[in-house]
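re: that complex we talked abt at group meeting.

here r the seqs, copy pasted straight from the sheet so there may be weird spacing, ignore it
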Amino acid sequence: MELNLKQSGIVRRICVKKWFPTRSGLWNKHTHEEYLRDDISCGLNSCADCSTFECKLKNNLGILCNQDANIEVPSKHAIIFDQTALVRFYDLLDYDAFQNVVICQSVWNYVNRKCIMGYKKLNTLIYEERSPRFFIFLNDYCEKTARKPEPLVATAKYLDEHWNGKLEPIIVCGDEGDVGKYKKLYQKSFSLKKYIEGMQSKHRQELLDKLAAYAPVEEGRAIFEEHWSNERITMGLATGGIKKGSFQISRENYREGNVFIEGEGTQWFLQGMHCNRAIHGDTVAVQLLPEEEWSIPEKALRLRDVEEYNLNPDEDEKENLPDTEEPKAKKRKQGALPTAKVVGIIRRNWRPYCGILLPSIRKEGRHHLFCPAERLIPRIRIETEQAEYLAQQRIMVAIDFWPRDSKYPLGHYVRAIGKIGDREVENEVLLLEHDIPHAPFTEAVLDCLPAEGADWKPFSQTHRVDCRNLVICSVDPIGCTDIDDALHCRQIDADTYEVGVHIADVTHFVRPETAIDKEAADRGTTVYLTDRRIDMLPELLSSNLCSLRGGEERFTFSVIWTLTKDADILSAKFHKSLIKSSAALTYEKAQEMIDNNELKDEVTTSLRGLMKLSKQLKSRRTANGALSLASSEVRFDMDWNTKTPKAVQNKEHLDTHSMVEEFMLLANISVAEKILSEYPDCALLRRHPVPAESSYKALVDAARLKGFNVITESGKALADSLDRCIDKTNPMTNTLLRMITTRCMTQAVYFSAGTIPVPQYIHFGLATPIYTHFTSPIRRYADVIVHRLLAAAIAADDIGIGLLSQSNIQSISKNINIRHKNAQYAGRASVQLTVLTFFKDREESCDGFVMGIRENGVQVFVPRYGIESMIVIKPGVQVDSEAKTVGYQGKTLHELDKVKVRVRVNSSNIQRPRIVLDLLDPMIPGLSVDFDLTSSEGMAKDSL
Amino acid sequence: MKIINEHGFRCDGRKAQQIRNISAQLGMDASSEGAAYLVQGNTQVICHVYGPHEATQRSRMQDDRCFINCQYERFLKSRSKKQNNMKKRTGKDRKSGDVERLVEKTFETAVFTTNFPRSQIDIHLMVTFKEDGSLLSTCINAATLALCDAGIPMKGVVSATTCGIAEGTVICDLNNREENDLVPRITLATISGRDECVLVELQNRVHVAHLPNLLNTGKAMCLAVHECLHTAIRDHLLHTIPIS
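got the structure back, here u go
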């Protein structure tokens, strides 16, 4: 007796049985009911029957008229996409050339399972933006269409009958191969390509471009070896025949790379075809080659910039590429590296890439090559017919796949960023490429701040010490608005001093788990470009409430030491305090005050005390083996109105620089000791690993050529031997050697205590067993965490959620490590961009130094502008890459030699102007300027 | 899995406040005083009522009224291929103990127990091993029908339903897939669909703000179930030959 069958809308009930295997090999039956309904709306706007049905979406089909919009389907029609169309081409749904789109529930569910990005796109368009172009037909619930073998066909047939000519449903499928199948069952089926080709819309071409990437490629000669199947890779990894690791292209030669084997710390070398379609950053499976096939890196610099500049991708690639010949596997030489080949890709690390379209010789061609700004990424082949327009734009391209028979990966055009050469656009590219969040702060973030002008000072905080009576001053570069540290020094008696470092109390404003905290944690660091600063915290905090301006009361977190006159720490205490800075000084001003013997006021006395103590600290640090390293940092004086560089800043090193630096280091170390003793499992620390002996090879070789002996057995020995490397004739040699030393080392990283053995906590460069960052919470998120940890340790603040969790600290440090590195790269890229603008209409002769000699070129470094570039060697010049000399007619050039070069911009290609160095002195034919440069251009600076 | 999907439906195609199909059969077994077979969705319950008869459990016997003794069993399909027959599960788990206790309490309020002093009424519930949600309410509904079939005087027909709350929306008559999710759910039983509860059972926790809404919807649904049960009893009576 069926009782309650007919409830409103429910007409039928079916039981669906599913079988699941059990662990013991038997099968379990799962039964569930499904109720089929007759109150499912068809979505047609003018359908009277369906308008009464309850539905989350408006019945909006047919409001937008697409009559005569498509040659293929002249009548008014509704598009039913099949699942492949949506999974592959969900990007296309943004275009309003598609109107009256019916998404079937079965397709929706399929997309949800198979392609989460596609699902998000659909959900945003349909349920969040409520775009009137879409409607969801619940075909699995509708009594007429449910449980049919071809749900789309059943739906189309039902809708066709139901609408009775008012609107015509058509099926559009993504795969050409499926059209036949659908056509047999339902006449009005089209492939997506055919449908778009029939469009009258102005976006037709753009749509075709996007579609094009997926066009089936004719089976040509396979260039690459086939990748192994997933099962085979898993098996291989389990049995140990192959290894898994991350693939890194060599920075000097795009046809060589290394795979860093996961969990072993070793690396395998890869060359040429053995890279087998791996792209920089991918996780790959590699197999070691037999020992007789091992090889060594070519000693030549190979950059795509020069080699592949003007080629025509329309023609058969194999014939016109200048470099089709394989780098000949060197016969087994001494020192061959373990060489491997890629057998499969485990995880792709693709993202949309910024870059430009390379000019194609045949203007009317459809296939074009795209050149990513990131030079470790290969060229990408895209298909477009708007090449002429795109050639003037910075564009973004995504890789789709890399077939075996293509030399380049295939991709599609995503969007244009803006015109090439426009400063804003170039900056945007820079930020996008380095994955730097640079959107303005959201409302939610700004809401976390106290209102401007409001009294932000809470009445009384018991843990806060009133330090307004102390004479405190800050010393910073000119024009600094985010002053986050201030100092004071007071002589207690003849032998002891009280010294305080006061750091802006950012955590007072940035509370854990608020929107502003999450944003700051994501940004990780403030990024400094030459003409712009991307703040980690909103301006109100970074330049006002947390900036320790002179004469204003501010909250700080203070470290107060009692030091002897030899700068030995007698005691250190930490507390939050309220200060009033007496003066915000610049380095120059502070130096002037110290040097002026007539000044006897409190600030000056305090500064003199600090200076005296800092010298003690510095000499002790150096005695411990701290390295002083050099880098090629360049700063520009900017014309802020036009945002153009005026001149290079001459960076002068003053004693006040190292004075502030010493106390910051001391504060960081003291805080590190405190938080580590309190939280040995979750303190956020910074370490600089001791470099492996072998990584110094470049340094030792370079020094030996100049007749110096660099000892690398310990940090102290290294520091001392570097100090001895002084060439009387060339004072820059020492700096250059220090730069090479910097390059030999790995970067310092943040980590959570307790994740590695204690001896590895060491900070090698500073020669201190532990270190952290405490002194710049306005511009670094690590400092914010350290502030919270320290506040918790001295019971000045609550312990926030997750603050004391090691895994949480570790994940935070992972993020800030990446952000920090990206910020550095972005800063450097920005300098290079500025150099390019600077040299736009000028040439200059500068001193340069030979940094390296390769078989095909000489690397020259110009310290004044931080330019490092390549001068290509014409055949005929003798190069001895072992002894590192270039010789011609008795003249030789050695590494680290001083040369004179002319710096200019090569704008023969308007799209990509590049910095070019011409050798003026010594004159070496084949290298110097009288040589015909048009046939061998210098290497692009921006890629080095 | 979302309990209510983006389109506003539940996984089996129902809307939030629709109950599942109910089918019932009464008096199919002559060996007991009353019997009923009730299917709600895919949850199937067979109920037999014996009594009132003289109390066999002396300790529970009361001088002024009868007591109700409930026994709950689940069929278990034998795992071994040799004995491919239905086999009773031995021993009791906590869930069946709960069901028994709640059914007893419910009907001790609904039945006019003072009519039968020093006696007992036995309710035997049998459930298939694969039940499909809302077990307790189905058991109570089946027991009501069986008690009616046995002709035991009650204050009214007891009807029960299970309601849950998902993302702020009350959903009724949960099935197994929905119960797998940790939604707060409440089982309500009312007499004759009136506004008085004889059973309230809450599983998981629900915010107090949702409770009035949950209770009101639950009562309305009990009324709907009551109508179904009422129809079932009337249909059964129409087909029974009265003893003249």
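couple things i noticed - Confidence is low (pLDDT under 50) at residues 82-86 of chain B. Chain B has one domain: 22-238.
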